[in-house]
Write a structure and sequence with these properties.
Order of helices and strands: EHEEEHEHHHH
Structural class: alpha/beta
Distance between the termini: 25 Å
Strand content: 5-15%
Largest sheet: 3 strands, parallel
Radius of gyration: 19 Å
Shape: globular
């Protein structure tokens, strides 16, 4: 089981604490997380001053990728309409096409980066529910069974 640390960047409930101190303390904890055995750092995008603030968690995660190279990173929330460039980047990185093409592209990624966690998304950017459901059913019927049979990267070489 992977265990993650959620960075909230919240000053709610503390007296006499400024935003800079909140930010620095959450980053300090994040930098320590790999050494304590955490597997993932999570951050949510929030734009409220005391409840939680991290207006660009994608930028934060690029920083953390450099200072915490031995831990996975995840977004708990990205407010997509406020990040047109992020949507464009997601669309460029997305895997599209027939089940065979999707599997080929995932195999290429796996050869380059090793094992990775796949998060499939079928409903975004205004795609109608019926089309999303059709895509989900096709993926679940033809791609998912193949992915479930994959052995961990390097397992074949160890045998």
């Amino acid at each position: 089981m992977d265990v993650g640390l959620m960075m909230i960047f919240s000053s709610y409930g503390w007296e006499n604490i400024d935003d800079e101190q909140v930010w620095e303390e959450d980053l300090r904890l994040a930098r320590q997380a790999p050494g304590f055995g955490f597997d993932v750092l999570w951050s949510a995008e929030h734009h409220f001053f005391d409840y939680s603030f991290c207006p660009d968690n994608l930028q934060l995660l690029t920083y953390l990728a450099g200072v915490c190279p031995d831990i996975d990173l995840g977004t708990a929330a990205v407010i997509v309409p406020w990040h047109e460039a992020a949507v464009e980047g997601f669309m460029k990185a997305a895997v599209w096409g027939t089940p065979d093409r999707i599997l080929r592209e995932l195999e290429i990624r796996r050869a380059v980066v090793g094992d990775f966690e796949l998060n499939a998304s079928f409903r975004f950017g205004g795609i109608p529910y019926a089309k999303a459901e059709t895509s989900l059913r096709l993926f679940a019927g033809e791609v998912l069974p193949v992915l479930k049979r994959w052995q961990p990267a390097g397992a074949e070489a160890a045998e």
